[in-house]
Amino acid sequence: MPVKQSGVVYLKNMVNGSWEDKETETGKPIPFSIHEQDRAMIRDAIIDAIVHSPELIRNVLAVILNHIIKNDFPGRWTGIVDKINVFLQSSDPQIISGALLCFHSLVKVYE
Asked: What is the number of other CB atoms lying within 10 angstroms of the CB of residue 56?
């Protein structure tokens, strides 16, 4: 569990610092940002990861989700609502709890 926690904290720091595209100034090196294909892969996997992970990991993943929603919803990530809705229809309380956390993150951005 400690290795998983450190990995998810590393991902959180990476997403917070490098998610959005940064503008370059003439003569300066290009700042690092996560490539769009990698962002798409993270967007596709983050809700599944939140729903199926233990609570300690889930809370850090929710912070990552919140940052992604602020930057990509609704422009680049229109399928988040449908994906959350699928998990809300489950009969497993763990899955419903994770889906509600995702829905709460979505609502919190537009609060």
From this structure: 13
Long-range contacts of 12-19 (CB under 8 A, 24+ apart): 12/60, 12/63, 12/64, 15/42, 15/64, 15/67, 15/68, 16/67, 19/67, 19/68, 19/71
pLDDT tens series, the chain, 111 aa? 899 999 999 999 999 999 988 777 777 888 889 999 999 999 999 999 999 999 999 999 999 999 999 999 888 888 899 999 999 999 999 999 999 999 999 999 887
Hey, what are 90's tokens? 């489950």
What's the 3-state SS for 46-89?
HHHHHHHCCHHHHHHHHHHHHHHHHHHCCCCCCCHHHHHHHHHC
Give this prediction's pTM. Answer: 0.89
